Request: fold
Amino acid sequence: MTIEVSGSVLSGSVCGCDLLPTGAAELDAEHEAILGSLTLMLGQEVVPPDTLRGLRRMMADHFATEAREFPRLRPDRRTAHQEAHDHFLRTVDGLLARGDTGQPVGNADIYPLMLWFVVHSNTADAELAESAGPHGALPDLGTMKGMMAALEHPEFTAS
Ligand SMILES: [Fe+2]
Ligand SMILES: [Fe+2]
Reply:
């Protein structure tokens, strides 16, 4: 299977889907760093094992950051989120094991990781940030009351 790596993918847009801010500063900073790492890997025809191991470490650390917030989630959502993280790490482990057998890991293998990362961040992680309450959640822009409150939100008041 051949996957074309387009300019839009390299800018962080996957299948027309951009990485969106969750509104939680720590998560968003880590997401940006991960996006940068994945973007570099997408530009490599063959991804060195050490680079892939570095991504795994970065993701495991990031998942630990998110796990600290898991108690805020409903138990079923917490389990689903944890399973999603475990699935990602198992996928990377599979690629590392394949690389150990002499089959190189290429950017076509990284593309699904990027897609997973963007979709997961925009959905499950956004839900997690929202559960953190008014300090972590994006402002509610759907109501007049929410719009007025948003004027005080750091997202809008930061210079
Ligand atoms: Fe995340
Ligand atoms: Fe997550």
The domain at 18-157 is CATH 1.20.120 (Four Helix Bundle (Hemerythrin (Met), subunit A)). The chain has one domain: 18-157. The longest strand covers residues 13-14. Strands lie at 13-14, 17-18.
